[in-house]
Structure prediction request, 319 residues.
Amino acid sequence: MARVVVDVMLKPEILDPQGQAVANALPHLGVEGVSAVRIGKRIEIEFVGDADLDRARDIADRLLANPVIEEFTVRADDSAGDDRQ
Amino acid sequence: MRIGVVTFPGSLDDGDARRAVRVAGADAIALWHADADLHGVDAVVLPGGFSYGDYLRCGAIARFSPVMATIVDAARGGLPVLGICNGFQVLCEAHLLPGALVRNAHLHFRNRDQRLRIETARTPWTMDYGPRQEVCIPVKNGEGRYVADEHTLDLLEAEDRVVARYVGGNPNGSMRDIAAIRNEAGNVVGIMPHPEHAVSALTGPSTDGLGFFTSIIAAVGGSRRPAHTAGAQA
Prediction:
């Protein structure tokens, strides 16, 4: 099994009110020195067989991201199956 | 006159949309997302709600349903289509309308009676309205902020494709106060507020929304095709 990770982010020029809300909450936690937070989506695609970056890119382009407001990156994830923090 | 109203899993306002069609004087035909057949309807309404749970993005998955494949083709051929709220989101995701609808700038779900100015009567869905007529219909959305790049916004304004604007306060941060737009041909209109909730004094703030439904009846009635083909049974 091979995992491909697609990260989808709002384009820089698109207002991200969720990120702003998080950034504005950080001082309440005593966290200083953060100038901005932006929130996106991480999507993991499990392929049967080898990781197929081209197909993942096609899936991202057609469905996972809306090119009007979002951009995406695609990468093979070699850490599939690892424990997460 | 047969006006189809699509039901997706998670549609919410399909019942009100069908009722608005009947109040205006046409037959409301229930269309099902998994059925690619439009059953000979003269126009289609994509209703409000949360199709497919709003998963991924609002309207993103509904766009790939069997009925939408047919509607996209038919709309490109001139079939009148009105997308309300979630229906507007579906039309943008299906690239029948430019731009996108994103999270309200203030992050709150906004639910109130909203004043709008109908900016153009040059669509089959708004021809019953007067020039720059102001109306009051409910708005209710969490992701209703219309965004597009500056070039697209300029083009929409230059080509008289902004169909309605918010007046008396913008409820979601939409660019240039845009509440509704149309495609180049004018047959496809997307609107974020809900005309189908303002068709009778008992249940709405006004009957101002009825004009969308009487408009389409007048528009399609004027160019009425003869009897529909076989299989036109809902």
